[in-house]
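Quick one: structure tokens for this chain, please?
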Amino acid sequence: MGTLHKPIVFAVVALLAACSSTEKPRITQSLRVPAAGNQRAAVDALQLQGHPYVFGGQSPQQGFDCSGLVYYVYHRQGLRLPRDAQSLAQQLPPVAADQRLPGDLLFFHTDKPFSHVGIYVGNNHFVHAPSSHSGRVMVSNLKQTYWHERFTGVRRPRSGPVTNAK
């Protein structure tokens, strides 16, 4: 097995093991995110697991809402993105779902189109700040029925500031 595939296999095994228990362990930075895409954004997002959901929150001290999590992760990398999910979806370039990479943004139709966003970390998993369920930043599987049925698209943040960022 090539060296590129070992981190991916390790990540899949670790995530599948986590999915089989009722008490899901926190996925840590030691989990290797596939090297393609924005690995730093994916790892930074994974480190924020457990922080509370707070409407309008955009920092570890405040807590996070879904777009606040995206804003915080990318702001730390010097990229100024829009602050709400709909603006992110409108202003960032779309990517085919089968071409998604770690760090890409996944969008969902929870109460209206593009109303929820998460950061893809690879192997069909994404980090997000849901207002329900645990009410904390967590990792979910895109193949779970709830998320699969509501999935609306992928966007890729690019280098440099995005125009009309709020």
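The CA atoms of residues 54 and 64 lie 5 Å apart.
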